[in-house]
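Customer escalation, tier 2.

The customer says the design service returned an amino acid string that "doesn't look like it belongs to this structure." They asked us to rerun it and document both sides in this ticket. The original structure tokens are below, unchanged.
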């Protein structure tokens, strides 16, 4: 195996690198872990609370008319409170938090598909722009040979000075097109590095896309069921319903059980104690009922606010659904148009190559001018550029269609990344935590930096396949 083949990059390899180290994706995972913590936060409101206080005091100036005031006092108090009934606020708050976890997990799927779509586009941009550079390089070389031949024929009087000027002009334009193509290739390679984390190296042609639909209607039906944005919007709407119920619970009575104990030690400074005791202990237990009669209108305002947010979530769900339908249909149309464009442009390339050979042959017998050759060469280059562009557009549109359908994630693409990231692992880890000191280790960066990557150039592999 040649060294070039050994270092070749595949699309699946690029996606796997992005899956492991793209900062947008790793940051979204961290954001989801933060969302997971809202569940134990809400659960804490319904759990027992234990508080303890302690104090030590010493009189600096003893009251002049007091005969029982101690000089020193040591106090300790502890209270345990257990919520028994909270009007449903805690229960609905927990359900809202759980539902937002599900919405966040759907959003994480959407972020993954979005990053993958960008990587696919960047991968195909590098392939296309490298091919365009190669085509323009070949065109410049051909025009240089043509200019040399035209100059030689001018020296012997076979062509005019106008023919030479036309050749020079066309070569100058070709060199300008090459410079633009090289700049586009550098931009594409730098964008690839920003998404994947490494420079593109001898990218291989992408594999066929799996599971593309036969009709736009079938694509829409799959999207309505599997698109993560729709699922997230639905879950957020459900969460707002729980928020409304939780707000309504604030006008209902609450019941809690409590027990408390106290300890006071006067440290032998209580001079007039009838029993001579310097220590006081107490303990009590009971049930507390709190009935909110009037709270300044706050509960009603909170309910109305959450009802308005629920209404907004309902409209947002329809908005997202509309957008997904339009996105799916547009992606399908772009994919189909690009496939047809590939066929048309392939015919155009074949015809342009045949035309160029014919014009050159006819020029050799004097029936065609130098300008005819230049125009035929330019048409051939344009047709080839359009063909590689159509191939790029077809693949990107096809992947965008899969993303709109909700089938462009890591488990759909069989990426070789080992165990896939499962957001439920962290949720299951934290949802039942009780301990106040159960902290996680300090966070570490998961994504890779690109500050040490070399500035890209427009060099292309020799012998790059032409359309």
């Amino acid at each position: 195996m040649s060294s070039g083949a050994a270092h070749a990059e595949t699309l699946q390899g690029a996606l796997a690198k992005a899956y492991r180290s793209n900062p947008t994706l790793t940051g979204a995972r961290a954001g989801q872990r933060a969302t997971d913590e809202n569940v134990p936060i809400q659960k804490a409101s319904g759990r027992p609370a234990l508080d303890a206080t302690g104090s030590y005091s010493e009189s600096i100036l003893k009251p002049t008319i007091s005969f029982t005031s101690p000089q020193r006092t040591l106090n300790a108090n502890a209270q345990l409170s257990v919520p028994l009934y909270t009007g449903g606020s805690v229960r609905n708050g927990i359900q809202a938090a759980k539902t937002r976890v599900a919405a966040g997990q759907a959003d994480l799927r959407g972020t993954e598909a979005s990053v993958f779509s960008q990587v696919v586009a960047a991968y195909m941009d590098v392939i296309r722009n490298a091919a365009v550079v190669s085509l323009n390089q070949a065109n410049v070389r051909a025009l240089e040979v043509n200019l040399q031949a035209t100059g030689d024929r001018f020296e012997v009087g076979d062509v005019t000075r106008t023919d030479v000027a036309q050749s020079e002009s066309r070569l100058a334009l070709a060199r300008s097109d090459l410079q633009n193509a090289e700049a586009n290739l550098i931009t594409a390679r730098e964008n690839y590095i920003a998404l994947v984390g490494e420079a593109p190296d001898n990218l291989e042609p992408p594999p066929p896309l799996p599971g593309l639909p036969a009709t736009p209607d079938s694509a829409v039906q799959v999207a309505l069921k599997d698109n993560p944005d729709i699922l997230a919007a639905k879950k957020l709407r459900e969460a707002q319903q729980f928020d409304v119920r939780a707000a309504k619970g604030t006008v209902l009575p609450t019941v809690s059980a409590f027990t408390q104990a106290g300890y006071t030690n006067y440290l032998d400074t209580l001079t007039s104690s009838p029993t001579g005791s310097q220590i006081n202990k107490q303990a009590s237990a009971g049930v507390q009922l709190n009935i909110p009669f009037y709270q300044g209108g706050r509960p009603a305002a909170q309910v109305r606010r959450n009802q308005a947010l629920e209404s907004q979530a309902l409209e947002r769900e329809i908005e997202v659904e509309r957008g997904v339908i339009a996105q799916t249909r547009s992606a399908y149309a772009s994919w189909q148009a690009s496939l047809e464009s590939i066929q048309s442009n392939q015919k155009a390339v074949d015809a342009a190559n045949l035309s160029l050979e014919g014009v050159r042959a006819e020029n050799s017998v004097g029936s065609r001018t130098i300008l005819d050759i230049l125009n035929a060469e330019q048409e051939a280059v344009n047709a080839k550029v359009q063909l590689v562009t159509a191939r790029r557009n077809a693949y990107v549109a096809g992947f965008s269609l899969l993303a709109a359908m909700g089938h462009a994630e890591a488990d759909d693409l069989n990426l070789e990344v080992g165990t896939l990231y499962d957001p439920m692992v962290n949720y299951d880890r934290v949802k039942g935590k009780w301990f106040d000191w159960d902290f996680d280790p300090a966070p570490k960066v998961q994504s890779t930096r690109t500050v040490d990557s070399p500035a890209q150039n427009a060099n292309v592999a020799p012998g790059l396949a032409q359309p």
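Tier 2 assessment: The sequence is consistent with the input. The radius of gyration is 37 Å. The longest helix spans residues 89-155. Sent an explanation to the customer and offered a walkthrough call.
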